[in-house]
């Protein structure tokens, strides 16, 4: 993680119900950061519990977006199962995000390459572009924190796979004690990069390992078709 206070994320994937609040719907997809789309986090101390349930988000406004293919973000090719709603909130210490996608839960176990996964990307460097994850022009063998200075972006990536619904993933004592942004339970990692080919788990780079990096994100997921009793072992992997 680069230069940010600790942050938390709640993710609810493929919720089947829910009216979408569409305040700032993006009409045209763009990699340009100068868009009118803003997700604003208001101060709501003590409101959000990180458990994958969205009841505590219901009075918080969100923005709805179509889910478009990354490499061909054409409106014709939007996911037709439902829209994605993003909400944000903060309590003065942590910022919380909720991502909700309408639709059935269709993951087939074993196909980790077909699982739902999401990433949030934040601009850190003043010259970082949304397009090409920071947009540094250097090649993988020449990009360094010096040659790509100013193009830093920070990402939180959560791949659902076999993650147990309701359990917290992400920053944990084991990985943080080794000084990296990994999640050895392989679901929620914290990384930073300068372009799509120069991306590193916090701390683990090709030429330098920084042993003071930490993953400060935590995340969990839920689907409305699941019952509460389905989530056994509802403990954090970090304990
Ligand atoms: C996805 O995973 C399945 C199961 O492990 C494997 O058979 C398949 O070849 C993988 N597909 C790709 C494109 O990697
Ligand atoms: C960003 O780009 C401008 C213009 O090229 C340059 O003057 C500035 O130093 C850059 N910022 C960083 C942090 O490298
Ligand atoms: C950084 O850490 C990784 C994982 O432990 C290791 O494979 C790699 O050799 C280390 N790199 C350096 C330069 O120490």
TrEMBL record:
Keyword Electron transport: yes
InterPro entries: Cyt-c552/DMSO_Rdtase_haem-bd
Signal peptide from the UniProt entry: 1-22
GO MF annotation list: heme binding; metal ion binding
Record-linked Gene3D superfamilies: 2.60.40.1190
Domain Cytochrome c-552/DMSO reductase-like haem-binding, residue spans: 55-228
Keywords: Electron transport, Heme, Iron, Metal-binding, Signal, Transport
UniProt keyword Protein biosynthesis present: no
Top-rank lineage group of the source organism: Eukaryota
Protein name (record): Cytochrome c-552/DMSO reductase-like haem-binding domain-containing protein
Species whose genome carries this gene: Solanum commersonii (Commerson's wild potato)
């Amino acid at each position: 993680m680069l230069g940010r206070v600790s942050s938390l994320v709640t993710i609810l994937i493929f919720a089947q119900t829910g009216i979408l609040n569409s305040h700032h719907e993006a009409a045209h997809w763009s990699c340009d950061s100068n868009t009118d789309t803003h997700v604003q986090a208001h101060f709501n101390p003590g409101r959000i519990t990180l458990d994958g349930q969205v009841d505590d988000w219901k009075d918080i406004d969100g923005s709805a977006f179509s889910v478009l293919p990354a490499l061909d973000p054409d409106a014709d090719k939007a996911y037709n199962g439902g829209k994605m709603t993003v909400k944000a909130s903060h309590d003065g210490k942590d910022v919380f995000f909720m991502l909700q996608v309408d639709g059935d839960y269709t993951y087939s176990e074993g196909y980790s390459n077909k699982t739902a996964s999401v990433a949030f990307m934040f601009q850190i460097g003043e010259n970082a572009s949304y397009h090409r994850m920071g947009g540094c022009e250097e090649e993988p063998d020449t990009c360094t924190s010096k040659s790509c200075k100013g193009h830093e972006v920070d990402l939180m990536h959560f791949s659902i796979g076999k993650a147990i619904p309701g359990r917290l993933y992400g920053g944990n004592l084991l990985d943080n004690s080794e000084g990296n942004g990994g999640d050895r339970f392989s679901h929620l990692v914290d990384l930073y990069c300068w372009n799509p080919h120069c991306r590193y788990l916090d701390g683990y780079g090709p030429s330098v390992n920084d042993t003071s990096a930490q993953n400060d994100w935590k995340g969990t997921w839920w689907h409305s078709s699941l019952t509460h009793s389905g989530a056994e072992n509802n403990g954090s992997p970090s304990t």
